[in-house]
Structure formats: C-alpha cells, structure tokens
Amino acid sequence: MSESQSPDSTSKSLFGTDHNPTNIVPEKLSLDSKLKFRCHPKVSCFTACCGNIEIILTPYDILRIRKVLNLPAQEFLLRFTTPTYLEKTDMPGVKIHLDENGRCPFVTDEGCIIYAQRPTTCRYYPVGMSYFHGAGQENTKAEEFYFLVNENHCKGHQEDHVQTIREWRTDQGIDESDEMNKDWMELVMRRKSFGQQATLSEPAQKMFFMVSTDLDQFRNFVFNSSFLDTYEIDEQTLSNIKEDDIALIKFSYKYLASSLFGTNDLKIKAEKIKKKAEEIKAGQKGAEERAKETFEALRRDRDLLKAQIEQQDKKKK
Ligand code: SF4
Ligand code: SF4
Fold it and tell me: Which pTM does this prediction carry?
C-alpha cells in the first residue's frame, strides 16, 4: 500500500468482513475503480495503524515471514502467533500475536521491519476484498469484489494520489500473494459456504491446522508416515516437494482439498480403495450377521412365551 520503506496498516481480517461496518464505504468496487489514497513515512499517522488489529496469516504469509526471520515454523508460530478460527468457519489458523500494548511485534518507529514480506492483509489495507458464493453454488468459483475502509485515524485518504485498484494491487505486490493464497482461500470460502450444516471432526481440524501453518511438519508427514502408501504421487512431484517450499505449499492445498472435500486433486492408490471397500463390506457382513442373531433370539423368546401360554391354557382345562 505505501511507498518504499514505509509501513502500512492492516485490515481487520483476512477477508475484510470484520471491519467496523461504519468504516466501510458502502460501494462495491472493481479492479478498474479509482482509489484516492497514499501512505508514506511523512503522514502524521505513520505507524498508528499497526496496532489493535487482527492479522490472520495465510500459509504463504507464514512461510515468507519466517524465512526472512530465519526461523523454523514451530518457533515462528510460538513466538509471533496466536491460534484463532478463520472467520465464520471451524477451520483453525493463526493470527499475529500483538504485544502487551496491542502493537504488532514487527512495527518500529521507522516502520515495518518485515515490510517486503508483510502479510497479505497488510498489503490490502485500506482496500478489502470479499468473496461471494451464491446459494447452491458451493462448487463453483466465488465472485470477488473490493471495498474501501476509511478510518478516521488514517490520513492517507487525504493525499492526492489516485490510482485504480488494479494498479494498487500491483504496487503492493498483492497479485503474487493472491496467486499463492487463492487455493487456500477457496478452501476456506468453500467451508464457509457450508455454514453450520456439518462440522469438521477434531482430527480433520488438527490436520488442517498442521498443514496450513507448519510446512516442516507437513513435509515430515508426507515422507515419514503412511501417506505415500495411500496416495499416488509421481516421482517429479515428490522430488519437487522434498526441497521446494513453494511446491510443497501448492501440494498442501491439493491434499487439503482432496481430504476435506473429496476432490480429485490427489489420487488414492487402487489397492487402498480396494482394502477400504473390503473393510466396509466386512462391516456390512458383520451387521447382517448381528441382525440375524438378534432375529433368532427374538424368535426363541417368542416361542418360549408361546409354549408357556399353551401350558397355562392346558392347566386351566
Ligand atoms: S506486519 Fe508490518 S505492516 Fe503489518 S501490522 Fe505489522 S508492522 Fe504493520
Ligand atoms: S493510518 Fe493510513 S496513512 Fe497512516 S500509516 Fe496507516 S495506512 Fe498509512
């Protein structure tokens, strides 16, 4: 959002819907809409916006920030994040852990110390992006649109600089972030569109959290569990995800889509499917046998009762 080394502010949520509604300009914007705004180190509100905020981190945000800080995933998560739920879903994620004064741990008087790797949310401000999924269209691509957040403390709106949302996105490096985030955001949006109809099981939530926040652990899971016995993964993909974090992050989205929503992004091995089918069949067979046993027991009880009644009748005669 801002020029050169100045810090930028943040929106209040990844998808923009947690903004105070009174600060949202009620106008649906497109890529060609004009934005009058500029943030730079000389604004009187410089760094005022990097506190009392909620910055949810995408898997790509986490990767970029921890790389520049040179920290393994676990250490970064422990030191700089707090667990949260991704808005209006039961999908767990993380947000930046603010300090005791409610300030972002990465802000200094000179600005943001991770500016080049700042989170997607920070890049967007004061623009918000939202998605729309029509009812019954959960499996289609969501429509995206933009809106403007105009908060009193933010003086960037008084600057004379005008550009389109499209230019703004390029200037802020949003295109690259969105490209890396889009499949993950689609997962969250898809889950959100299901509403309360179904809840993710605890193991599924744990898996989603691990895969979305800790690539080190996900890589370990892929290469050191029964994962490769279950899924058909070609040699080239395996070699890519072994070393390359970007390849691994893209692969992780496919894994989540296929394990949470049953998509065909990853193929389960034929023998695994056969084994599962046999287990189900065996389960059904067991259920049939149990039903037969119950029926026989009921019939025995009935015959016993019938015999007792006949005996009593005989005695009466
Ligand atoms: S990450 Fe940087 S830009 Fe974002 S809130 Fe923190 S200091 Fe501000
Ligand atoms: S409040 Fe607005 S103008 Fe001021 S530093 Fe933050 S984004 Fe820039």
Answer: 0.80
